[in-house]
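FAQ: What does the model actually see?

It sees only this:
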Amino acid sequence: MSSAPLWVVKLGGSLWRAPELRRWLEILAAARRVRVVIVPGGGPFADAVREAQPALGFGDRAAHRMALLAMEQYGTALADLEPRLNPARTIADLRGQPSPTVWMPLPLAESADVAESWDVTSDTLAVWLAGALAASCAVLVKSAPLPDGASPVHGLVADGVVDPALPDRMARFDGTVWCVSRDEHRRFAEALDQGSPCGTRLTGDPNA
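And it is asked to produce this:
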């Protein structure tokens, strides 16, 4: 296993229509100084689950599992778009396979100590996975506008940028959590090459 630092990078489902998506995949696939594990968002597949739940009436537990399957679908698409990405499911495979890997969350995420509700998205699951892998940081790639510098996570929850479960999960994570705008891929590529995260660093202190 490589001694290079490990970053968990969540590619938001909102990027599925973005022209920057393929550039992000190329950058992550070319990472050398840092080991990368990609967490896929749910994209249009999770949106379909949200739309179907009130119509069909299935519960939150079923919706949670279906949302994990949505992440699998998006992850499968990402791995197909960029053949250098290696799909992986278990902690052992995520640590042992050549970087970069794409996390396929079933069945591992089913054992995660997170709520089975829409308050938990791939944001929180990415930070949960970063903790399980002892990663140095988690990076959440977002389509929404982001503030400069450090920013209290609670404010981004209120603005709908990150999910409501993230502050509690961050409090249990020893590494740092960052948000990066999808159009900052060039800046991120430089940061990846230097082994130093960039973007908006999330803090748990509402007075930060």
